[in-house]
Amino acid sequence: MQLLAAQSASSFPVLNALIIVPIIGALVVVSLPNSRPELMRPVGAIFASISAALSLYVMAQFSIHEAGFQFQSIQSWIPSLGINWHVGVDGISLWLVVLTGLITPIVLIAVDPHHDPKPYTAWLLLLQAGSFGAFLALDLFLFFVMFEIVLVPMYMLIGGWGYDDRRYAATKFFLYTMAGSALMLVAIVSVATLSAGDQDITFNVIELAQRQALSTNTARLCFLAFALAFVIKVPIVPVHTWLPDAHTQAPTAGSVVLAAVMLKLGTYGLLRFGLYLFPEASVWAAPTLATLGVIGVIYGAIVATMQKDLKRLVAYSSVAHMGFIILGIFAFTTQSLEGGVLQMINHGLSTGALFLMVGMLYERRKTRAIEELNGIQSAAPIFAGFFTVVMLSSIGVPGLNGFVGEFLVLIGSYETRRWWTVIAATGVILAALYLLWAYQRVFHGEPAPDDEKTPDLTFKEGLVLAPFILGIVFLGLYPKPLIERIEPAVNNLISHLEHHSDYVQPDLGAPVVVDIDRVSEDDH
Amino acid sequence: MGPPQLLGFVGPTVNWWALLPQMILLGAALTILLVSALAPQRTSPAFTTTTTLCSAITSFIVAIGLWNDVKTDGPSSSIASAFGIDGFSIFFTILILIGLAATALLSHGYLDREGIDPPEFHALLLCSAAGAIVMASANDLIVMFLGLEALSIGIYVMIAMHHRRSEARESAIKYFVLGAFSSAFLLYGIALTYGATGSTNLVHVRNYLDAVVFRDQHLLMAAMALLLVGLSFKVAAAPFHFWAPDVYQGAPSPVTGWMASIAKAAGFAALLRIFFAGFASHDVDWAPIVGVLALITLAVGAIMAILQTDVKRMLAFSSVSHAGYVLVAVHSASAKGTSAALFYLFTYTLMVLGTFAVVGAMGNDDEHPLSRYAGLGRTRPVLAIGFTVLLLAQAGIPVTSGFIAKFQVIAAAVDNESYFIAGVAMVTAVISAFMYLRIVMAMYVVDDEKEDSSSTWHWSTSVVVIATVSFTILIGVIPQFLIEFAEDAVPILIRG
């Protein structure tokens, strides 16, 4: 611990800066004069971009072959209660941090709130700060603070800038997540108190994961309390009903951040706090959770097929995609976990872009009803082209990012959760069904007079979408930079699981992607 | 200076310095009454408010001095051990003085608007505050009872002072009748305590209970039950809360704030001193009962709150569920639980004062519907965001003092292995969050654009709201010093 503190003191605390910069940005935006509404979003975007740059700096400086937490920084916060401000990043959280960093400035630039730009910008910046905090926290108390505080900006965004039914959707969103985390707080305190023994009470995740001082049943109960909070956030099927409402009623910016960043808090939480703190309980609960994940894949896909509202369709497709990630996490193999982490990023890119484009379509046509849209392709061919790429990525077509993630999840899960994998694989086909069918109805066909007047993509919108498309194609063709950073952390997590439970990873040989490289090196 | 002697009767030694805070308040009350009676024309509201504020500040400074004395010399007691001078009593003195200053400021604008004569109101408020301090400091049950009555009688009259409104009178009568009823319970409990232990002095009670093993402790159990019932009325714990919604609704908002904050805090001060400190050795007897009371209070407060349509009634039930939270902390019967309760009361008091500051400024008609807040987010953005912070703090959202307070209560309950109670407390927090969110939504989500602002903002309201909101966020971010303050304020019973 002392060593870590010494390390952090010597270098620039970049992770703290990540959290603080957007907060400063929000304060600056709030103090701008009301008479200059046009300044709000650019100023906000500048601060969001600074933190985006910082997140890219973290990515560049991240040491590849290190499994542990990097850039750690510990400050005493509430010594009476044993609480520290403790942040750090590893291969699992690194890409989520980068995603959070990049999404917020894009959204700020891309989406016009139409009214009250000042609070809108401030809330988005606070949302960014809170999301960074949640992904970086290595102290359970700090994590809980961040996990809950992100509700407030999102609630305000949905309530303030959403559509007709926003009051209901915002309240439902808030209460669902809060209800989930209620018992998690009790579990957090219980874990810290019961692990303490004769030592000082601590909320340090690394410390608690190493102590493993809880009895089996206590650990399982605590795991369930944590899992409940996270599966609601993901969301997994029986508790997913807040998601379609929140997504549909949220303004475009809210939907994008909700899908790209906030849903990941659930899956990330399961990895970081579920598996890491409660290895034995995770192995115990894995069949149930994997089953729920697979149910999510199928259920989400079927319900998405039936949707009349394009945005609701995308929302249900999220349920299906997140189900894949859950399956990957609870299959406990290197590939499945890598695939799960990668799929979090992929889902952020593709679903984020889909929400952004549905929002653009709504701006043009003031409707999201599939039956009122027809033959958009002939009126807006470039828009249709962008939409196709994103849609194919979401379906998981080879060559684009979605394929890499889904393939890794499926190949990894096959060894340990064979029948689950078989059923989940049909979800890939269902995804093709609902997305292609929707595409066909909206973009193909005879355009009505309204459809013919749909303007095509503007240059600015193209610029906004370009990073998404680039990411989708790049990760589809060359996912190695991500995977080689994710892998050490994932292997570390699996050996932690093996060490603290009777689970043993079946021998699958070396991981696929790294293998290809090694073969080519051997040829020389 | 030896003890005072009169006709051969030797009185107890009095540490006048320790009694100074409440004596300053009583002095200020008398000054206000005297000046208003003798002054040729109507005394100006500025004079009474300034006098009250000055006395609160002076007392505050004295209390800080006393705190340092206790820190260096340790706790003591005075007047034949009837009046405790420990961290606990000074903690509550400071809290009550803050509440007094805030209520004085709020009533300044309110009395002005409603045309009520300020001198009597302020004199009663000062007496009530002095009573609350006595109640929180008393080591003797009879002295505690006197403090309680001084606190309550002031409140009865303050509620009724808005004599043009029939609701106010109805509230006053309701509170008076039920208050008298609960006092009877309390007094009978005191009598039975005397019967069981031979003294009304808590120091003696504690020592007696430590030393003696009862063959049959029915009398003591009855005494504890009656004391608990009497105090539960005062803190509005279910099932003794029925007066709260009606009285909160009918009372003038500054007085509602005073009742919800200081009267409740003083009630809990008495509860903690009697049970945690006095009946410490019998915690196996009383803690489970407090636990059940906490569960009922949490559930009733949360569930009834979401069924209300009137904002003041919502907040009344919310104050019931906060009482439940403090009872969870009391239930754990540990130093950790007690300091959690103290932290909770301190932060809750400030939140609730700020909340009722806003409520008071939103008009004082017979009803207080949610629609009155419609569009506040647009018409008064700064105060709307302040009110939002206060409401979210009451819901226990992080980065506010309310979260740290809830966290400590949960930590105390878990430490005591009361996992079920901790779980119920968190779940009811979610239920009551719905009610707070309804108010927030009303401010920000407006269905039809209308400029309806019957609100009359007085500068004093803004001062209170800004101060309480800043405190709420400050403690939410850096709570350490208040936690230490509460840890140092765990009650200690000491003779001499």
Question: Can you give a write-up of this model?
Answer:
The complex is a heterodimer of chains A (524) and B (496). With 524 residues, chain A is mainly alpha-helical. Chain A has a domain at 286-524. Chain A has helices spanning 2-10, 14-31, 37-61, 91-110, 117-136, 140-149, 151-161, 166-196, 205-211, 216-233, 242-249, 252-277, 279-305, 310-329, 334-365, 376-379, 381-395, 401-416, 418-443, 449-452, 459-477, 480-500, 512-523; strands at residues 70-78, 83-89. In chain A, strands 1-2 form a two-stranded antiparallel ribbon. In chain A, helix 4 (91-110) runs parallel beside helix 15 (334-365) and helix 18 runs parallel beside helix 21. The longest helix of chain A is centred in the C-terminal third of the chain and has 32 residues, at 334-365. Chain B has a two-stranded antiparallel ribbon with strand order 1-2. A two-stranded antiparallel ribbon of chain B has the order 3-4. The mean pLDDT of chain B is 89. The longest helix of chain B is centred in the middle third of the chain and has 32 residues, at 166-197. In chain B, helix 12 packs antiparallel against helix 17 and helix 15 packs antiparallel against helix 17 (419-444). Chain B has 19 helices and 4 strands. With 496 residues, chain B is an all-alpha fold. Chain B has helices spanning 16-38, 45-73, 87-114, 118-137, 141-160, 166-197, 202-211, 218-235, 243-250, 253-278, 283-306, 311-331, 335-361, 376-379, 381-395, 401-415, 419-444, 459-477, 480-487, and strands spanning 5-6, 9-10, 76-78, 83-85. Chain B has one domain (12-487). The interface between A and B is medium-sized, with 33 and 34 residues.
